[in-house]
Amino acid sequence: MAIKAVIFDMDGVLFDTEIFYFERRKKFLSQLGINIEHLAPKDFIGGNVKQSWQLVLGDDYDNWDIPKLEEAYRQKKEEQPAPYPELIMPGAKTVIHGLRAEGYRLVLASSSAIVDIERALKGSDLYDAFEIILSGEDFPESKPHPAIYQEAIAQLGVEKNQALVIEDSQKGIAAGKGAGLRVVALKDDRFGIDQSRADAFINDLEQLLDFLK
Fold it and tell me: How confident is the prediction for the chain on average, in pLDDT?
């Protein structure tokens, strides 16, 4: 059955943000006396806020006021927002606008906060291309739980075999597969991400246009 809808993850797929996020987080945490030198960017890729704090704090998690910590980090993010237009993936604009022009229905399903999603898409002239925008903060369980992709399909009202998920992270791929969807991974050659569950791979976003043909 022909593909009618394409569901995109954001970070690592449309925007090359992972190093920026990691360095910003590391600097913030170092000011609190928390060292994450033992962690790598891939440890955070695809996760949500709660997963990140559990990873960072480990056995100390229950000794911290997590809402207060998260609010402080939110303020840090406002002071040092990601320069999304500079971090957009090569070919992202061409592919997104090209797919929209060809009649594909587009969805953005990201674990990121809605404020970051809107900042990224609006700042890069991509916001209006997406029919549906979903943020992980609106779901009790984030990726690898399939809820965000299940909701995407429910809102689209299409059959599962009429939609394609574009992901990069292990958690994101697992979420797409858990929702019963076909997942194409943007191939990782930097972080050592386990993408083995993906159904297919593309080396760059522009290959997606050929893939859909």
Answer: 94
